[in-house]
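Practice set, problem 2.
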Amino acid sequence: MTQDSQKAFEIVARLKEASKISDILREMRAAGASFGYDVFIITNLPAEHETSTQNCALVPSWPEGWRKRYFERDYLRIDPVANHVKRTTEPFLWSEAPYRSDEAGAARVMDEATEFGLSQGFCVPIHHLTGPGGGVSFGASRLDLSEDAKAALHLVSIYAYQRAETLIREGGRVPARKAPRLTAREIECLRWTAAGKTSWEASEILSTSQRTVEFHLRNAARKLDAVNRVQCVAEAMRQGIIA
C-alpha cells in the first residue's frame, strides 16, 4: 500500500465518524496539507427542473467571494468542469474538461476562478446507477498530483460525498436505505480490492478464478448502487460492511 493510499484510508476512517457537516469540512480542509489543494467543494448537480443552484453545494470550502458569485450567477450550469462530470465517471484535471473557444460562458468561469487563486484543480465525479449525482472538486493556484495521489483523492471524495449526503438526509428526517445483504464471498472480494489487490491477485489468494472474483465484485457494486470499484469499496466502508 502506498503512502497516499494509507493517508486516504486514515481520512476515510475519520470521515466515517463524522456526525455533522462541519466534521467533514474540517477533515477535508486538513487533508489539503497532505495532497496540496487549497480549497474544495462537494456539490450535487442541479436537476433540469431546478431554477436555482444555490442549494446544490453540500460542503462548500471555496473562497467566500467566489462561492457567492459562482452560485448567484448560476455558474454551475455553464462550468465546463461540472458539465464534464455528466460525461465521465473517471476523475480528471480541470484542464482536461473540454469546452469550445466560442463557449464564452465556460471560458468566463475558468478565467474568473483564477481571480480567486484557483488556476488548477482536480475533480472526482460521483455517479449513481441512475446517472451523475454530483462531484468533489479540489482547487489551488498550482496543483501537482501523482497518480497515487489522484487515486487516493478518488476514494476520499466518494466517501466524503456519501457521508455528506447521509448527514443531510438524516437531518431532513428521510429514512436511510437498509444496508444490502452481501454474500461472504462478495465481502471477501471487496476486502482484498480495498487492500489494493487486482482481480487476479484476489483470485490467487481466494483459490478461485479471476472471472469469479469479477462476478462477485459486479454483484456487490449492483447491490451498493456503485458504478466502479472505488465507489463500491467506499460505499461498503461507509455502511460498515468492510472495515
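Problem 2, part (b): a different protein.
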Amino acid sequence: MDQINNYQALTQFNLQKQIDLKAEKATADVDKNEQKLNKIAEDFSAIFIGKMLSAMKKTLPDKKMIDGGFAEDIFSDMMYQEYSKMAAKQGLMSNLNQALVEQLKKQQS
C-alpha cells in the first residue's frame, strides 16, 4: 500500500513539475515577444524622430561664411540619426511606443 501511495505521489510530483516547466516556457515566450514588440516600437520612434529632425534642419538658414560642403551634410545627417536613436532609447516618445505595442498586440491576436 505504501508503494502505491509513493508511486501516486511521485506521479503527481512529476506532473506538477511538467506543468510548471510548460508555464515557465510560456511566460518566457511572452516576455520575448514583449521585448521584440518594444524593440520594434523603439526603432519606429527613432525613424519618426529622425524624420522630424530632418524636417527641422531644413528650416535652418544656410551658413554662408563657413560651409563644410558635402562632408558636413553627411556628418550632420549621421549625427541627427544618432540623436534620434538616443532619444528613442530614452523614451522621448514613450506614449507613441506604448500605443504601437498595444496595436501590434491586437494584430497578433
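Answer key, part (b): The chain has a mean pLDDT of 83. Residues 2-108 form one domain.
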